[in-house]
């Protein structure tokens, strides 16, 4: 699939990738029913299927994906998603919001996976007004590239595109089946982009 993507010009020489997570509905509920339920004491969904992706910002191809359950912290899914992505594509730059602010995430990318630069917004709850003590997080405070970070909106656009085409509700009921469905949705998303490029 990556070879075909390169052949169609979907993957550039210095790929920029954004990491983020989104939630899905565990069952389809009509907008009308959802509004009525919200007014009353209706059943509240306590957990939902969650998908963390590494998305190529230029093409919106999903290079890495990890399924799970929300609500949960985003940062633990960073490592497996980035490992998947860099096994397929040599990523030049990785972007992430404050949910992925951790020195070990920078270190993983820069020292283990060969990513040239990381731009991950500092989480002020971790530092307050103090300067971070660790080198990569300190670099984010010293020279944070806002223009580069603002390319992160592509991952939100990719999620929107995915849900418009494939829907925001899963059909599977149990967690294992939902995980399999999310994997199939990622493959379908990428195949649709390849078909358009062809």
UniProtKB/TrEMBL annotation:
Pfam families: DDE_Tnp_1 (PF01609). One of its GO terms (biological process) is DNA transposition. GO terms for molecular function: DNA binding; transposase activity. Residues 15-191 form the Transposase IS4-like domain. InterPro entries: Transposase_11 (IPR002559). This is IS4/IS5 family transposase. It comes from Muricoccus nepalensis. The lineage of its organism: Bacteria, Pseudomonadati, Pseudomonadota, Alphaproteobacteria, Acetobacterales.
